[in-house]
Sequence to fold (486 residues):
Amino acid sequence: MFVQKKAEYNLYILDNGGAEQDPEEWWDAMCTTTKEVLSTTKINANDIKGISFCTQMQGLILVDKEGRHLRRAMSYMDQRATKEIKEGIDYGITVAGINARKLITSLRLTGAVSSSVKDPVWKYKWVERNEKDVFKRVYKWLDVKEYLLLRTTGEFVMTEDSAYSTFLYASKGGKRGWSDTLCSLYGVNKDHLPRLVKTTDMVGGLTKKAAEELGLAEDTPVFGGGGDATLIGVGAGCVKPGQTHIYWGTSGWVSTIVEKQIVDINSMIAAIVGAEDGKYNYFAEMETAGKSMEWVKNNVATVERFEEMIDMATKSAPGANGVLFAPWLHGNRCPFEDPNAYGLFYNLKIETTKNDMIRAAIEGICFHLRWMLECQDKKIKTSDAVRFVGGGAISEEICQILADILGRKVETVKDPRNVGAVGAAMIVGVGLKKIDSLSDVGQFLPIERTFIPNLDNKDVYDKNFRAFKMLYHENKKIFKRFNSHR
Fold:
């Protein structure tokens, strides 16, 4: 039985490029929805055998010794640390805009490098520079899931996948753990970094206070869990080398399981630590997939329901009558890193309709996903059939458009929006020894629908895709002129 309850919390977008959330709102949402699930299902809290989490990654939550957050969390979308990253890596002899010494050292230890303004280390450095009173009181640096682990168990820990996303975690050379060299290189106080655990480790039991607030039983085992980039693939059933999944949620990404660490500095793609030892996610991300569609729904379609908007899009022909949409509403990370790049509609005409613009938005997100997939193919072999998950995968129309634009078979599983929760449940299963390993979870997650590319649409989509890739390069200087003052 799968029961979903939802509660909303705010995203605070600031004029200086900041993007923040309130950890107390996360906790309130979790308490509210947990109680609602128990009430709806009539499940006895004592029958719950384990708890785990799948959350957004690359946030920065700074807490004191009592576990109280010292400021609002800086989201993965936060891009205000432009000065910090420039001073941190863009100086001296550079390769792809990264100081050569730091690049070589980081690649040697992690197989990647902290080269995005949105990476947590630059958020940390921003707080150090701009909020000195806050920084003096920092006890530990946590990510989103780690904050929830703290609230549920009282333990200051971080799973290895979250640790890797700080780029302060050495994952190469046989010895894994926080790196003294990298901490020194980036000017990070190693004492701020928490104890490391694995995704399937039991972190602790639910504290009495947390149990009362959640309506659960004290001492219920809480397992490490994983970030969304780690567990959504697990919940999609992509757990074996060579399997590729595409996620369309608030953000979007392409991820392929590999057995060694690979990096493509030019395209901003790296193989990040996965849920299992010896497996990595070769990961390419865009910041605003579903968030772009939400903006289009509210400001172009002006309808209440996403289904209405999708129906409008189907009234426009493949290729959206020549309209293109760039889904970079909050900067972009891959295959180009540019916090100044923003969204645009291109080639609007008098006869252009809302239907064309909505379809162009769907196609634009799919074009960007294809761009990242093709960048991955330069380094590895991605799968011929792609598993598609997230809110976008609920729509059969979007699934078909994606298949047509990729020119590949697209597969979906049951309830694709909630595969992150399924991945977290699999973590509990392995942690409780009910499942032998995460490599075995695919048998529990069969394909529900398959979409075959319509070759009649290939020519128009290939033509528009070539034009789509030109949008950034042709407008890069204009983006900088308009937006670099932030």
The first strand starts at residue 12 and ends at 13. The mean pLDDT is 94. Residues 12-224 form a domain with the Nucleotidyltransferase; domain 5 fold (CATH 3.30.420.40).
